Amino acid sequence: MNSAATDRQPVHRPDGDSIWFSSPARRQLYALAWLLGLLCAHLLPTLPGQDGLLVLTLLSLTLLWPPQARWLGWSGLGAVYAIWAASHALADRLPVAATGADLDVFGTVVGLPERQPEQQRFELHVVSWHSADPAFRWTNAQPTLRVSWYGHEPTIRSGDSFRGTVRVRPPIALVNPGSFDFERHALAQGLDAMAYVRSGQIETGAPSGLFIDRFRQNWSTWIQTSSQHPELGPLLAGLAVGDQAAISDASWQRLRVTGTTHLMAISGLHIGLVAAFAAWLTQGLYVLWPGLARRWTRPDLAGLAGLAAALIYACLAGWSLPVQRTILMIALVIVCLWTRRYLSSFQMLLTAAVLAVLFDPLAPLSAGFWLSFLGVFSLMLALPGWRVEKPWQAMWRAQWVATIFLLPVGIAWFQQASVVGPLANLLAIPWITFGVVPLLLLAMLCPIEAVSAWLIKLATLSLSGLWHVLGWCEQWSFASIDLPETTLPLLLLALLGAVILLLPRPFAGRWFGLCCLLPLFVPAINPVALGHVRISVLDVGQGLAVLVQTRAHNLLYDTGARTRGGFDLGEVVVVPALRSLGVRQLDRLIISHLDNDHAGGRQAVRRAYPAALEQVGIETDPSARCERGEHWEWDGVQFQFLHPPRHFPDLGNESSCVLQITAGTKRALLTGDIGADVEARLLHEPILGPLSLLLVPHHGSRFASSLPFLDATEPRFAAVSSGFANRFGHPSHAVLERLQTVGATPLNTAYSGMLQFELGPEPGTSPPTQQRAVSRRYWRLAPDALAGWDRR
């Protein structure tokens, strides 16, 4: 063998690794494996118990010995760390059995309180609590509560002390396709329970220690007051100190449609701008103090000043995930400068990601984690290989790259893609970064109040110009598209396609990357067979919304509530669920009656589906009423109103539209809020017979679902739409007993999430799918766990 060939042979170290696989490369591989293991653990439907966690730990440690399997060992240790952290966080939650308990609490208001016309919401870090119930058990001695205080209570400020009695319940989400997962959000934010104030008082005064949130709240209030603009003032407060509580629903809608919601999160670009400005100011110190150069080099002092300024602004900005990522990367740059070491951009990003999840292993449960790190990764992936000659080309390239790569992530998290987003961001990003944020920072630094207020007004004027442009973009009919929920395989395929599309020239095969992206926009929707009907009882809490689908038609029965705090179930739950279920056109919108829990979301649905024919139980316009005897057929499925008859008076609940749906030999009855009197009238209907599905009247009130009515209809399944632990006690135990007497299977959306039934001409009725069961996540309570509270 010649010497040249001998020189190329790998020299093996004692641990079995070769010098061809250098030590830095191994460290990167192990760090990446540890990170991937931690991320994959968050995909588990359930968490292993202590025994399972111990076995996984021992197995991972064993795999660290053989060099060939060492990456598997590190991956397992990452999963162990995530499972351990998630298990402890879930153990700190309020037990379901403690729902509705009253606690005497004393604690400190943390974060930024949110004030609405009839209530305030704030987070309370409890220092001590006491329960008068000797059977009450909660192992968390100092929980964090999300508290609502209704009525004309005093204004709450960050750092205030609260003492009073609150009624608690676990953080339980409404579970529907496309809905915001509040249980995941609560776990990521460290919220252990929800509560509302029964009686209490605020102990005001200066907060103990350096309470940053008090400064943030004061600045937010002052900025909104100085701007003198009810719509733009909250936006400026969001840009300056990260306070988004006062931003209106209409503003959020404009930002979503134009793909600019990220502008309301204080980004790494803003933090970097502050750091760069502070570093530039240090150059003047060498003029004022020439001897400083003997102690500090210019790069070292500039880096230290930049990091200090970035840290101060990060605290004022609320320390969000994008801010944390930027701070970590700035700190890594400075460490490299001081130690005279070199780290590539990929190594810095990987190190920052590892440190971020090391400090907070539940961070991947937040969309901000993925959007922040993947956004930077996309720029690193594509830009080095592009030869850009002009600044505007670089800006356009960066925007195009970020849009393509983050598109699959945005669709997976928000089920929406902005068509005008790339163009809107091309204008909005530099406008905000250089035309609004600097004015806000100068206003916050200026010691003269009059000058500071003038700078805020100038920032308002600057933002108003951009806001009008975004409003113009919002009006375009094709501004955004709504998409159903995607699956993990489709998401991974789309990310692969994005990587291929963004690879630098002269890489061939970009057509394959485009093919990988296309399935994300044409997801598989399970069509309804001809002659069949699919009935989805949405989980809208203490209210009602039912989607009825045939082969080519869609009907919505009721729209959920709009709460007194302004929370619109129609906009937040019903419309996203319809879009995730593939509803592009709504043929009929039926409002059973005009009570808020049935019609509160009506306007939001009308805005999303303006072409739908609307009918109401009792309406001033006779052509818009649902009237007994009216019937129609869609795709072999029969529909007929059984109540109210013509000239029926407005009796509120008793005037509800009652709709019977017949698919072959199967029948379903949607009943609204009728009571026993209307049920007795329905017994005389000749077409009323045994039911495959009964929508239990009035959410299971004891004044409905009379035994003669249930005997006549013999329902196979009985669906109850109610809120978990609602104050009305729905469904009544008496009603549940009557249902069981006639052989019906009762199901409650409060425990099951959305219920979906499929009826057709085939014999037998299949059990419905329960959204909590089919979309199982470890942070989400199982239906049996919630139903157990009702059986306690």
Distance between the termini: 81 Å
Shape: globular
Number of domains: 4
Determine the structural class based on helices, strands and strand pairing. Answer: alpha/beta
CATH top-level class of the largest domain:
Alpha Beta
Poorly predicted ranges: 1-22
- Per CATH, the superfamily of the largest domain is Ribonuclease Z/Hydroxyacylglutathione hydrolase-like
What would the average pLDDT be, to the nearest integer?
A: 86
> How much helix is in the residues?
40-55%
Q: Please tell me the CATH architecture of the largest domain by its name.
A: 4-Layer Sandwich
The number of E-state strands comes to 21
CATH domain fold name of the largest domain: Metallo-beta-lactamase, Chain A
Largest sheet: number of strands, sense, barrel closure: 7 strands, mixed
Enumerate how many helices there are, as a single number.
29
Strand content: 15-25%
The strands making up the biggest β-sheet line up spatially as 12-11-10-9-8-20-21
The gyration radius over C-alpha positions equals 30 Å
GO cellular component, one term: plasma membrane
Subcellular location: Cell membrane
Keywords: Cell membrane, Membrane, Transmembrane, Transmembrane helix
Transmembrane segments: 29-48, 68-86, 263-281, 301-321, 342-359, 365-386, 398-416, 428-446, 453-470, 486-504, 511-530
